[in-house]
Amino acid sequence: MSAHLPEVYTDFRERFPEVMRHQDALAASIDDAGPLDERTTRLVKLGIALGAQADGAVRSNVRKALAAGASPAEVEQVVLLGLTTRGFPATIAAWQWTNEVLHGNG
């Protein structure tokens, strides 16, 4: 498992391996269900995570978007787009989480 994964998540995976196997299969099936490529999918999921104010999901999707070929500028634009939809406080929080990942602190 990645060093970025929270202990509560890894503990849950270890306690319920069969449930997580199904969750992983569902997630892969959903990712493959449409025409979006992985880069675009990760950027969309980043926007959803920002809207949900999900710190871990924002960080995870920043890392996954970069790994899928998104540029730091594209990731930053996704966060900036949250300003007029989700609001200033939510966007600033996501901006912090994003920058911590981009600059190696998260």
UniProtKB/TrEMBL annotation:
The keyword Zinc does not apply. Keywords: Oxidoreductase, Peroxidase. Residues 17-100 form the Carboxymuconolactone decarboxylase-like domain. Pfam families: CMD. GO terms for molecular function: peroxiredoxin activity. It comes from the Bacteria. This is Alkylhydroperoxidase/carboxymuconolactone decarboxylase family protein YurZ. It comes from Georgenia muralis.
